[in-house]
Write the structure tokens for this entry.
Amino acid sequence: VSTQSTGASTIEEVLQGYNCTIFAYGQTGTGKTYTMEGERSLASNIPWEKDPQIGLIPRSMSHMFDRLNAQASDYSVRVSMLELYNEELFDLLSPPNSSNVKLRLFEDSARKVTRGIGSVVIQGLEEVQVMSKDEVHGLMERAMQKRQTAATNLNAHSSRSHVVFTVTVHIKTVSQDDLGECEEE
């Protein structure tokens, strides 16, 4: 299965209101980071969204914004990106000059009861509202500079951590009979 078809089909489900996850798992050096994030080709004249080397996350975000912009609906998109390294959580989207503050993970039973969805909360995690695929790409490039890396026998810049990239999409649609508005998350 190609990254294009996987990302596109998953984004279509997200835009229909489903919660979705794409998960990369494998041994060190098998290409998980490359598959998910990709890298820029040496040919700098290629726009990033057309670069064959981009990964599943930027490719999916490009597809999602293309689809959202084609719809006649109001929407908002927020992203967060955290790193798990040596059993500690770090915010990869925190402002550039801020210190790398450890995040706190806890279970919020009140949230589960009131909203009926996941009860895990990461206190202090920055959620950034984004308006375009270019903005997401810029945030990802900045975040990748903060990642913990080290050399291995297989890769000179192997990521030594795990990353969770989260996207929250809100779409406001108007019903056909103008009786009201509904919001999908």
